[in-house]
Amino acid sequence: MKILGIESSCDETAASVVEDGRIVKSNIIATSLDEHKLYGGVVPEIASRRHAESISAVVKEALEQADCALEDIDAIAVTFAPGLIGSLLVGVNFAKGLAVAANKPIVPVHHIRAHIASNYLTSDLEPPFLCLIVSGGHSHIVAVNSYTDYKIIGKTRDDAAGEALDKAGRIMGLPYPGGISIDKISGEGDPNAFTFPRPRIEGAPYDFSFSGLKTSVINVVHHAEQKGEAISIPDLAASFQKSVVDILIANLEKAAKDFGYENLPHLREAEPRCIKKIVLAGGVSANSLLRAKSQKLCKKRGWELYLPELKYCGDNAAMVASQGYYEFIAGVKAKADLNAYATMPIDIVNF
């Protein structure tokens, strides 16, 4: 079964053909990142305009690279939530028009579910498992009970980890995207040079909070500027990255211990026992320190670790086509009135 995936939730216009949810036949991405760098972040109006300009050519190239025609496609999967609403609407409306013209079913795909599915593209991973999803807009710990059944264990209460990294990078004067720049420069710094808080949320031990951590970096930089003191940016970057990753790993380990690996009935009485699979997904899953500490944790605990290939960590359409395959065989289809939504929980998909 061949699924054409279309992704336009942020600043990447992407299309891909994936066979049986696992075999990538093509994966085309057009990005407007260089334009957004001029402004230090994604400008929604620019992103949506570039999607409108690029999407037709990107889809055409994806079909050509996969050596198939539109009539060979079994269904069209498209990201419909969450994301920048203008960007999402470009992809959704293009997919709907294409589906009507080609008489193909359209499958709505949740963007964060698609990030999880990026792990299906290069491994034999099957649910159930516990997944840490970390990106510019999301930080979740999710129990993936099946390909289409999810339970949120923990989530951010304010900034996402990727958002905090990007904003901290801007404060440090590093190029956008700040998270990538911090990861690159941290290797030159001392991760123990600065001490930052590790916020905990009372009554919600698996939830995250990164806004206070970001404010701490602002305070360090402003204090140094007022005093006329120099700051080692590599040291600051390394210390901040370590704090973010330590928080992510601590909550992930606690959730893994509490939800099923030693005490599975907390999830669902019907779930199988002895699950030992930990999965990372999302753009920040490319972070070198997060990957290293995840590997160390899973080795210590005897858990299996699945990491997406670096080329599938960021937004792409192969992950959308993969998840679209599993949604489609589960009977998920949309009608011609499919809309886009800026926000939507991963465990509740309405369309």
Features:
alpha/beta; 10 strands; five-stranded mixed sheet; 18% strand; 351 residues
Architecture blueprint of SSEs:
Elements: E1 2-7, E2 12-19, E3 23-31, H1 33-37, H2 44-65, E4 75-81, H3 85-102, E5 106-110, H4 111-117, E6 129-134, E7 139-146, E8 149-155, H5 161-171, H6 178-186, H7 211-227, H8 233-261, E9 277-281, H9 288-301, E10 304-306, H10 318-329
Parallel strand pairs: 1-4, 4-5, 6-9, 9-10
Antiparallel strand pairs: 1-2, 2-3, 6-7, 7-8
What does this molecule look like?
The longest helix has 29 residues, at 233-261. A hairpin with a 4-residue loop joins strand 6 (129-134) and strand 7. The chain has helices at 33-37, 44-65, 85-102, 111-117, 161-171, 178-186, 211-227, 233-261, 288-301, 318-329, and strands at 2-7, 12-19, 23-31, 75-81, 106-110, 129-134, 139-146, 149-155, 277-281, 304-306. It is α/β, with parallel strands linked by helices and 351 residues long. Helix 8 runs parallel beside helix 9 (288-301). It has ten helices and ten strands. It is globular and about 65 Å long.
> What is the SS-derived class?
alpha/beta
Number of strand elements: 10
Q: Biggest sheet: strands, sense, closure?
A: 5 strands, mixed
Return Rg in Å. Answer: 20 Å
End-to-end CA span:
24 Å
Strand content: 15-25%
Query: What form results from the Cα inertia axes?
Result: globular
Low-confidence stretches: 262-274
| Number of H- or I-type helical stretches | 10
Helix content: 40-55%
Adjacency order of strands in the biggest sheet: 3-2-1-4-5
Give the averaged pLDDT, no decimals.
93
Could you spell the SSE succession in H and E letters?
Answer: EEEHHEHEHEEEHHHHEHEH
